[in-house]
Amino acid sequence: MSWKESCRSRLREHLDARGDLAPPWERFPDYERHTLGWRMGAGEDWMGMWGVFLEQLAPDPETRIAYLRRHPPAPISWADAVHEVLYPAEPGDGDEDDGDEDDGDEDDPSAAAERRSALLEQGLIASDVAFTTWLGQQRGLRWPWERHPVPEEAARYDTRELWFWSRQVAELRKGREWAPPAVPASWRACARALETGDAGAIDPQRGLLSLAQLLCAGHVEAPWQLGLSLADFADSFEDDMGYVDAFRLWGMSAFDDAEQLRRYLEATRMPPGWQDWVAEQFPVA
Predict the structure, then answer these.
(1) What pTM did the predictor assign?
(2) Rounded CA gap, 5 and 224, in Å?
(3) Helical H segments across the chain, by residue range
(4) Using CA atoms, how far apart are residues 64 and 278, in angstroms rounded to an integer?
(5) pLDDT band at 1 (very low <50, low <70, confident <90, very high)
(6) By CB count within 10 A, which of 38, 191, 237, 276 is most buried?
(7) Are 68 and 86 spatial neighbours (Cβ–Cβ below 8 Å)?
(8) What is the DSSP letter of 118?
């Protein structure tokens, strides 16, 4: 059985009551647009089934826009895929999207910008919308140590989901009844941040731990807020990365669009000297 035949055989069991297969940004809101998760495991399976589902969906724009409107808006980073859902017969479209391929609009930024603008106006894509989609799927509050024995592991391997959880916790902490459970010994370094929203002094040399502490506090401080400089960036993804590198890891997972990034940079008052570095590390549209 071919991969496509396998996807077709499994499609029916994943359709909702309306006969829809949820678009990938709804099924896995904690997957950023170009993560390797779309090329392996559950993400790869879903993309394969979604390709089959779209082949079977009537090609007229009315049917396809109705399908999209039955589901949450896509992050802006998915604009190319949303456009292809609407217009599957355009030249160059029609290939199955694997979630990690650049589309032809990269050669024509003005055309890509026009398409994003149109999709934004239609409400089919939105800024910083993945968190809202993720939050609507939660049933209560899950604690990260249930999946990760140490905070460094959660910050490294579940960065985006930990960021969403951080935002969920920050809202709950505002309530008078906020009372987090006792954290396990291996997470003790994050206990104060989780309880009070204050991470206290962090160690910039222990980047992943510092990132986890700040996420438990509900806010991620930029390197320039901590007095760090570009000289502290080692371009490392190793477990012993410093904070600037851990911040880069977080930013790659956190920002789905330029407007979302702009709001963060304004709130943290980015110095001009960091502008080129941010543009290179977080190339969002």
Answers:
(1) 0.92
(2) 52
(3) 3-11, 24-27, 41-56, 61-69, 79-86, 109-122, 130-136, 151-157, 159-173, 191-196, 207-217, 243-254, 258-268, 275-281
(4) 36
(5) confident
(6) 38
(7) yes
(8) H
